[in-house]
Amino acid sequence: MGHIPERTCLACGRKTGKAALLRLARDQTGTITIDPRQRLPGRGAYVCRTSACGELLKKKKGLHHGFRQPAPAEIYQRVIEFLREHASS
Known about the structure:
Blueprint: E1 6-8, E2 15-17, E3 21-26, E4 32-35, E5 43-48, H1 51-60, H2 62-67, H3 73-86
Antiparallel strand pairs: 1-2, 3-4, 3-5
């Protein structure tokens, strides 16, 4: 078995394989996009696929830390809604 890339959830700090996390991508213009297939170019940040981590991400303003720039409130709401619809637990 080969190396499994690990990433850290911006909300809870849990380290796990990147396949278990939801990727968010920031492109060159600074636009942040939900990237469920983990294929978009740009800087990536990860959050657990649970609605609790989505809420915690918003509370901690985790995207500001992960992308090193302020993140609009709308992206937090979109992440929370996505996680509620697709949450693993």
